[in-house]
Design a protein that fits this description.
222 residues; single chain; 5 strands; five-stranded parallel β-sheet; globular; 10 helices
């Protein structure tokens, strides 16, 4: 069954999407926005295990692929690793969209996600999505140092050659996100790049204004 884009957009009109590239600040900003405005956060990464349980290997093969250990997981080529990540996200999207339709019927929902611009075009309007980005170089250390990614950190550090595993992961994330990063910066979507000078308050303020959660600043000549 295929739903037309206008149907999906109508049923997701109460959903605001925070997408982007790894380590761009999606989790931090979505949680801060939710706290300030009493909104429900829907994190697709947190929902993966639930979706995996109700998935079917015939229809969602990437979601159901099992790896023996970290050596097998990070022992793939960059291209194999990248394609698996892309397919994982695509397969999970069906579950995500149906969850969002259900959860957003009577309330606003913030979706912390990995939508591409092509997917965003089909699912929502430009004023309901923001892309938070970071140049995809040497992301593994930043990723592993986050408390909410302790499981991944433990996993990659269980590899027999940790440095090789980290190098493969870094190369894969760069290959997966470099074009996406550049395309987002050339697009008409609102994007905010994370830099060493970025602050949570400033980023939240920009996203709030874009989503219409607060009135835009203005001045009057007297």
């Amino acid at each position: 069954m295929i739903f037309q884009d206008n149907v999906i957009k109508e049923y997701l009109k109460n959903v605001y999407f925070i997408s982007g590239t790894p380590c761009g600040g999606k989790t931090t900003i979505s949680r801060e926005l939710a706290k300030r405005h009493n909104l429900l956060v829907y994190d697709i990464d947190e929902q993966f295990a639930n979706h995996q349980r109700i998935s079917n290997s015939a229809y969602q093969p990437s979601m159901n692929k099992v790896f023996r250990d970290a050596d097998e997981f990070f022992g793939r080529t960059v291209e194999e690793y990248k394609e698996w990540l892309i397919n994982n996200t695509r397969e999970q999207l069906d579950f995500v969209l149906l969850d969002l339709v259900r959860l957003s019927q009577n309330k606003l929902v913030l979706c912390d996600c990995h939508l591409t611009m092509d997917e965003a075009e089909k699912c929502t309007e430009a004023f309901r999505i923001v892309f938070l980005i970071k140049e995809p170089l040497n992301l593994v250390e930043d990723y592993c140092n986050r408390p909410d990614h302790q499981g991944f950190s433990d996993f990659i550090n269980s590899a027999s050659d940790i440095e090789k595993a980290k190098a493969t992961c870094n190369a894969t994330l760069e290959a997966l996100n470099k074009k996406k990063y550049n395309d987002i910066k050339r697009s008409n979507y609102l994007w905010i790049e994370r830099t060493p000078n970025s602050t949570v308050n400033e980023t939240v303020r920009k996203v709030e204004q874009h989503f219409g959660l607060v009135k835009k600043d203005f001045s009057m000549d007297i």
